[in-house]
Design brief:
- Strands 5-4-3-2-1-12-11-10-9-8-7-6 form a twelve-stranded antiparallel β-sheet, covered by helices on one side.
- It is 28% helix and 36% strand.
- The protein has 267 residues and is α+β, with helices and mostly antiparallel strands.
- Strand 9 and strand 10 form a beta hairpin.
Amino acid sequence: MAIEAKFLKAAIRRRFQVCDSDPKLRCERLIDNTFNLFGHGQARYQDACRHQARLRPAPQREHAAMRVLISLLAALCCSGCFGVPVERVGPKAKEQQPLAGPVVAWSGRGSLSLILPGRLMSLTTYVRHSAGGELRVAMVEDGGLMACDLSYGESGAVVHHCRDELVSLIPVFGAMFHGAYAPAAAEEKMGWRSGRRREANDKWNRWYGGDPVTLGYIHGQTWPVTVGDYRIDNGLLVAHRVHADGPWGAELQLLLDTVTVGEAPPP
């Protein structure tokens, strides 16, 4: 009897190995093939096979469940249900038009700090927004040399000049300057999400909140950017701090010192 039981266990083990290697095979076929050798013990084997199937689900089912879970997490991240560091719109501010960069001509001067792996830079930065809607940004080194000269308009971004070591940061500059200081979109292009106003386009999402309702966060195809420290200078409400967080501890931060109204000559 002990020899018979040992032989039965070995046969069951071989059959389970076949079942694991080929999920398309059914346990009923394995039962028929196996117990043609014995003629008894079929009930015990069938119970064991079904118990094994419950304990060890088919691999494709595990993978399908994992794909569904990953898809749900990705949808939550993309929808901005969490991770958006913007205050919700106040109850008395829900009818306000969201604000970002001023629509009129203005200019600002400040400093841009770059903390990069192995490098630390500080550039004097000039931001000019024309009445026609073009945004021009010039970054100048301490010696007066132009480090980067960019412009943004309806036709897109134009790189007039940029040092080689800063070329990889051009998309980040786009989110920091164009994303932060371009005027807010029209009301019909705005939506609501988690108590905040959201403006979405093919490059990034801009999130608005608080009271007054101002731009506070940008995320999309590049580093996430936070916008804050809004002040009224010469009648204009302008963000004086723009911060971008990159990988490996990299950071870019713009601090505006002065803001003036009207067209300004290039630096």
